[in-house]
């Protein structure tokens, strides 16, 4: 049986499942993500209301008439519109443009009707069903078009491309006709995650989305890349006009390229309430300076249309992120070589050294410059942390402050360290810490190697600390237990941390992070 997956037709055995299709075609898919299942072309096109008529002079957009009177004409159009492709403009006058002929089963009438600019009519020239023409009106007129006995032959209106219509002559040709897919087109499609679902003849599957990036928005494009974890992205909110991704909300991003927010456009909020949130648009929205455009969906809008809050979507970028942090120098060299970028090393040159900084920081800037400088440290000098699950605000505060929200390597700066006290504290941000309510407070004792944050119960809210010995009285920031939130455990060797001086930068990563 014939199935379509991500736009490609494939012949598969009867009884094949979604899993079979993914395996056979090697389609991009990350387990746990949603898949869009459409029963078939007719199922999809029954909801389509707009079509793009392409010519060698440009395109004309028509919107179908949804009235009951026009339904027989609309049904015929949906079944036979492809027959108008590759036909010449039959005639062009000051009043109308005609395309045809094709053969239909319509019957003509001889009545005269009044028509208006923008009407799209099916006309049976010479009162013959073998001479059915598509008539597009340039201006108001009264005429006998030998139309069928439905709605004066009108089945659509022109809503775009009137300039193109004016320029067409009988030397021009219709090069293609495409249904315009909108959110309303795919609302009857199914969102599935059960890969054992058995497919039927004519089914269409979409397993992933892909996007291109706006090269005039290097900082905000990197923000988009940061939201993609393990090849997928999680939906935080869905509405009629967009879906939102809010995991990095609050991170301030600059105004870069701003464009019309057309269907499929990806933007980052750069100002006001919701700064740092990412949006993918299901419907067109007006231009606003508060949204930086970072890219456009290339494939998989069908998935965007059906996605709901908390769904995961498999993502494939047309251009890969050049994130070298937490890679070894040798791994980075290989990645950059494949991208045609020169790798320059500042400082430690060992192949197995771990990269903690890169210049430029952003993928677009690296590709434009054709080179990148990396700084690395010995693996044993990298501080790895296993974060807890029951202190979400405090963990997010730490990741935000250190840069781990967006990058696989972050950094914190020593604020206070006294030899013999078995404690080291790092700089915080008192303003950001205002929302740090008590969570995961120590109960009986603080265990050596635990990392904690001072919560808003103390005036020193936001300070970060590590203890190097057990303590039954004070937390890692020397505060009482009720003013201490434990966020995790240091899983790397931490003995050297106790010897660090004020102002020294410590590089950190998540111990279960997959680079």
Task: Please explain how this structure is put together.
This protein is an alpha+beta fold and 515 residues long. It is 14% helix and 33% strand. The strands form six sheets. An eight-stranded antiparallel β-sheet has the order 6-7-10-9-12-5-4-13. Strands 17-23-16-22-20-21-19-18 form an eight-stranded mixed β-sheet. The protein has a seven-stranded mixed beta barrel with strand order 27-32-30-31-29-28-33. The model has no long low-confidence stretch (mean pLDDT 92).
Offer a concise description of the structure.
With 515 residues, the chain is of the alpha+beta class. The chain is built from nine helices and 33 strands.
List the helices and strands and how they pair.
Elements: E1 2-5, E2 8-11, H1 18-25, E3 35-38, H2 41-45, E4 50-55, E5 58-64, H3 71-80, E6 89-92, E7 96-102, E8 113-115, E9 119-124, E10 132-137, E11 141-143, E12 154-160, H4 162-167, E13 174-179, E14 190-192, E15 204-206, E16 209-213, H5 218-227, E17 232-234, E18 237-238, E19 242-245, E20 265-269, E21 278-281, E22 291-299, H6 301-306, E23 312-317, H7 329-339, E24 342-346, E25 354-359, H8 363-369, E26 371-377, E27 383-387, H9 392-402, E28 410-417, E29 423-426, E30 450-454, E31 464-467, E32 484-490, E33 505-510
């Amino acid at each position: 049986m014939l199935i379509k997956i991500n736009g490609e037709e494939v012949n598969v055995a009867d009884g094949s499942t979604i899993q079979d299709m993914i395996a056979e075609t090697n389609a991009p898919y990350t387990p746990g993500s949603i898949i869009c299942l459409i029963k078939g072309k007719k199922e999809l096109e029954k909801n389509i209301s707009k079509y793009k008529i392409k010519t060698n002079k440009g395109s004309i957009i028509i919107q179908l008439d949804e009235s009951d009177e026009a339904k027989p004409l609309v049904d015929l159009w949906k079944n036979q519109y492809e027959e108008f492709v590759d036909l010449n403009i039959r005639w062009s006058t000051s009043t109308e443009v005609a395309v045809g002929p094709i053969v239909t089963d319509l019957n003509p009438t001889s009545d005269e009707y009044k028509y208006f600019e923008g009407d799209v009519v099916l006309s049976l020239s010479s009162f013959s069903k073998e001479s059915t023409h598509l008539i597009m009106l340039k201006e108001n007129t009264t005429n006998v078009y030998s139309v069928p006995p439905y709605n004066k032959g009108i089945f659509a209106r022109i809503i775009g491309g009137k300039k193109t219509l004016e320029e067409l002559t009988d030397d021009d040709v219709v090069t293609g006709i495409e249904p315009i897919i909108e959110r309303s087109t795919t609302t009857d499609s199914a969102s599935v995650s059960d890969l054992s679902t058995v497919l039927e003849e004519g089914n269409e599957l979409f397993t992933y989305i892909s996007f291109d990036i706006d090269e005039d928005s290097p900082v905000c494009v990197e923000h988009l890349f940061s939201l993609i974890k393990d090849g997928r992205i999680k939906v935080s909110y869905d509405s009629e006009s967009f879906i939102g991704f809010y995991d990095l909300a609050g991170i301030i991003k600059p105004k870069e390229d701003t464009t019309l927010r057309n269907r499929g456009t990806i933007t980052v909020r750069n100002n006001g309430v919701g700064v740092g949130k990412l949006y993918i648009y299901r419907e067109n929205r007006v231009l606003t300076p508060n949204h930086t455009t970072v890219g456009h969906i290339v494939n998989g809008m069908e998935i965007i249309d059906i996605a709901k809050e908390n769904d995961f979507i498999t993502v494939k970028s047309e251009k890969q992120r050049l994130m070298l942090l937490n890679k070894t120098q040798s791994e980075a060299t290989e990645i950059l070589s494949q991208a045609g970028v020169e790798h320059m090393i500042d400082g430690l040159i060992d192949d197995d050294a771990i990269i903690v900084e890169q210049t430029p920081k952003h993928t677009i800037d690296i590709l434009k410059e054709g080179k990148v400088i990396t700084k690395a440290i010995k693996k044993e000098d990298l501080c790895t942390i296993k974060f807890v699950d029951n202190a979400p605000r405090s963990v997010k505060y730490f990741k935000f402050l250190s840069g781990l929200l967006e990058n696989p390597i972050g950094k914190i700066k020593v604020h206070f360290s006294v030899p013999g006290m078995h404690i080291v504290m790092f700089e915080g941000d008192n303003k950001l810490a205002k929302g740090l309510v008590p969570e995961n407070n120590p109960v009986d004792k603080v265990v050596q190697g635990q990392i904690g944050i001072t919560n808003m119960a103390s005036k020193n809210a936001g300070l970060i600390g590590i203890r190097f010995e057990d303590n039954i009285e004070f937390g890692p920031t020397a505060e009482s237990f009720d003013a201490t939130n434990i966020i995790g455990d240091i899983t790397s060797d931490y003995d050297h941390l106790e010897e660090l001086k004020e102002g020294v930068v410590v590089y950190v990563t998540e111990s279960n992070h997959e680079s």
